[in-house]
Amino acid sequence: MESKDDVVEEEALDEGEESQPSASSAIKSEEEELDLTSRTYKAIVEHGMQGILQSQLWKELNLTSRDGSRLAIRLEKRGMIRREKVLENGRWTYRLYPIRMPIKTASIRNAPCLTCKLVEQCSEDGKISPKTCRMLEDWVRKEYSANKVMMKVEAKSS
């Protein structure tokens, strides 16, 4: 958990005050910094819309509180995450939430249009059309039924 000093330091960073890097901080190349930013965002997204406490995230990524705070602030300024100040076990910290979840292609992976031999002839008002395609209709029904079952399972486990 972060101490009160960590939250105060982050608030100073939020206000645009840049503190000098400590002697123990290693200077990272832009490529390493980009990789670390990407890993941080990916880890936040993996925790979904329930978010993750930033202290937990720093432990997972083996970061110092200072480096982790800077990464979170950077992601927040880019509009990729939302930081919410929360009281956790009697201490103030931040919970990090992704603003948008990445699009998953699983929902269209088995769409018949992707392998259809008639896709070149298919158009909205053509003889072959998504409006009249039996394969597309069957696929939509199947996906809907499968997702309906998944939603019920998730609701029961929550």
Strand order of the largest sheet: 1-3-2
Shape annotation? elongated
The secondary-structure class comes to: mainly alpha
Query: What is the level-2 CATH architecture name of the largest domain?
Result: Orthogonal Bundle
- Poorly predicted runs are 11-27
Query: What fraction of residues sit in β-strands?
Result: 5-15%
**CATH topology descriptor of the largest domain:** Arc Repressor Mutant, subunit A
Q: Helicity, in percent?
A: 40-55%
CATH class of the largest domain: Mainly Alpha
Helix segment count? 5
CATH homologous superfamily of the largest domain, by name?
Winged helix-like DNA-binding domain superfamily/Winged helix DNA-binding domain
Task: Give the topology string: H per helix, E per strand.
Answer: HHEHHEEH
Mean pLDDT: 79
Distance between the termini: 26 Å
Describe the largest sheet. Answer: 3 strands, antiparallel
Overall strand count: 3
